[in-house]
Amino acid sequence: MARAGNRPGPSPKEAENGPLNQQTRIDMFKKTARYATLALIGLLPMASAASAETLIIGNFGTPIPMMTKVNTEEYAKAMGYDVEWRKFASGTDVIAAMASGDVKLAALGSSPFAIAASQGVPIKLFMIGDVIGQAESLIAHDGSGISSLADLKGKRVAVPVGSTAHFSLTGALKHEGISESDLTILSMSPDQIAAAWEQNAIDAAWIWDPVQSQLLKSGTRIMGADETAKWGYPTFDGWVVNSQWAEEHPEAVAGFVKVTAAADAAYIDNKDAWTADSAEVKEIATNTGADAAQVPGILGGYTFLKPADQVGADWLGGAMAPAIKSTAEFLKEAGRIDSVADDYSQFITLKPLQDAMGE
């Protein structure tokens, strides 16, 4: 090593050809830089594609229009992420996943959302997936002796506890003046309900599709969520997002809205074309496990809303916050939560819908 202040001796190359002059060094530097730049230009697209992050989106595998898109690249392109769809059995499971930070965006029913917001889970409702009607219903097993709500006394009734179906069941019992202690309420996932039904281990269940359609093959619909809504217990499925993540990635959330809204609009604008033989219904059946012959009827059990309607005063832009508070108050009275927030509009954001409509 040369000491400070001393120049090293000539390199073998300099000894042979003489020292490289300054211009030669500059030319070599420019050439090297040019090659490096060309290499980077060619490699950047590959590096970008290889380093795309994966975003987990939670859902319930419900047969709804947006399920026509889950096996396409449309969500990935619109959001800028590789999308992994994760199916959950109930809203309780979704809340746990979002509270842990593992899931940033997911479907969540109105009553689980009221629970999560009341408990301080950092999420915001940004879109209504569907308004629930007969898509969630109380189905009685053939031979159970159940033909009305009053007949539930002494019976075994299964429901995913903490779900919108549970909220509807609880509301129906309250409306009829039936105590929950008058029957046996069993907390089961949809798959567990289907298995228990086949084994005659339950007498009735309040559940959604595609399991509801399975149960109807050997059961009778007693009532649906459309009726409990008239009694003051409305339910819907919404899309929620981690609050901080939404602020940091507004384009991704708006992209999700655009793809979902386009799927909903395709159905809303041409419902009659969505027959059992249509490509859309077949795709939904493939992606959810539902029977294609039953999908049109299942879709008819929901109401879907376009973005312009969702931001209006009847929904997210006004009436929704008081409705969520009423749900929370009911859940507190039922012992499901300890406290109710003063204002639930703080847990709702219109920005993704507005951004999607503005583009």
Structural description of this entry:
The chain has 359 residues and is of the alpha/beta class. The chain has helices spanning 12-17, 22-50, 74-79, 91-100, 110-118, 164-176, 190-198, 211-216, 225-230, 243-248, 250-268, 279-288, 295-299, 307-310, 320-333, 351-358; strands at 54-59, 82-87, 105-109, 123-132, 136-141, 156-159, 184-187, 204-208, 219-224, 236-242, 302-303. It has 2 domains: 54-132 and 235-358, D-Maltodextrin-Binding Protein, domain 2, CATH 3.40.190.10; 136-230, Periplasmic binding protein-like II (D-Maltodextrin-Binding Protein, domain 2). The protein has 16 helices and 11 strands. A 6-stranded mixed sheet has the order 2-1-3-10-4-11, with helices on both faces. The chain has a 5-stranded mixed sheet with strand order 7-6-8-5-9, with helices on both faces. The longest helix is centred in the first third of the chain and has 29 residues, at 22-50. The radius of gyration is 28 Å and the shape is globular. The termini are far apart. Mean pLDDT is 88; it is low at 1-22 and 28-50.
List keywords for this structure.
359 residues, 5-stranded mixed beta sheet, 2 domains, D-Maltodextrin-Binding Protein, domain 2, disordered N terminus, alpha/beta, globular, 6-stranded mixed beta sheet
